[in-house]
Design brief:
about 210 residues; about 45% helix; alpha+beta; 5 strands
């Protein structure tokens, strides 16, 4: 039994080897007249890159890794810029010069301006200028101030932040605050507290009317 099985296995192995050799010879005959194509002169066929040309990012070239010195310099630059803006605003306030966020006329107690910023002066009347042109808003504002000064010490003017204006330019805000600085009844103004509109509104301190 053992000898017959071994003979059978040897015959199968010889048959497989003979078949493989025949397939190889047949493939060689079929491919004997094949010629390698020349490179495409128009460059439409791209050559496959070799492994040596592939760029493998390393830890030193990773985009997620930042130099600690660069981070410290960027942070320091932002802090200096913020401090400079605050210093300019404080100098403008101390000198009584116009400011976008706050204004106080010369001779007026600066503590009144701080009260406006903290919301300690409660507005006695509100005016909403949304939807008006700059000219309409200035005319409406002037009439409002002239009437409110007889009964209110503080008023709130809502002019918006200009987020929906062309180019996001707050034209209404700028014109309203320019008009407030020129009005004789206005002593000071400041951005309204966040609960009352923030930078989209302004608290205005009015001069006490002589007839009150």
């Amino acid at each position: 039994m053992t000898r017959r099985r071994g003979k059978t296995l040897s015959a199968d192995t010889r048959d497989q080897t003979t078949s493989a050799d025949a397939d190889a010879e047949h493939f060689a005959r079929e491919m004997s007249d094949v010629v390698r194509l020349a490179p495409d002169p128009r460059g439409r066929v791209r050559t496959r890159p070799t492994l040596s040309k592939l760029h493998v990012p390393t830890a030193s070239t990773s985009s997620n890794e930042q130099d600690p010195d660069d981070i410290r310099r960027a942070t320091s630059s932002r802090l200096r810029s913020t401090s400079a803006r605050h210093a300019v605003a404080q100098r403008a306030e101390a000198a009584g010069s116009p400011s976008d966020e706050a204004f106080v006329k010369p001779g007026v107690d600066r503590r009144e301006l701080r009260k406006l910023k903290r919301g300690e002066h409660v507005p006695g009347s509100h005016l909403d200028l949304h939807g008006m042109t700059a000219a309409e808003a200035v005319a409406r504002l002037t009439r409002f101030i002239d009437a409110a000064r007889h009964r209110c010490r503080c008023v709130c003017i809502v002019h918006g932040r200009g987020l929906h204006s062309v180019g996001n330019v707050a034209i209404l805000r700028t014109r309203v605050r320019e008009s407030l600085r020129q009005h004789p009844a206005v002593l000071a103004y400041s951005d309204a507290p966040r609960a009352d509109g923030g930078s989209g509104a302004v608290y205005v301190l009015l001069r006490k009317h002589a007839g009150r």
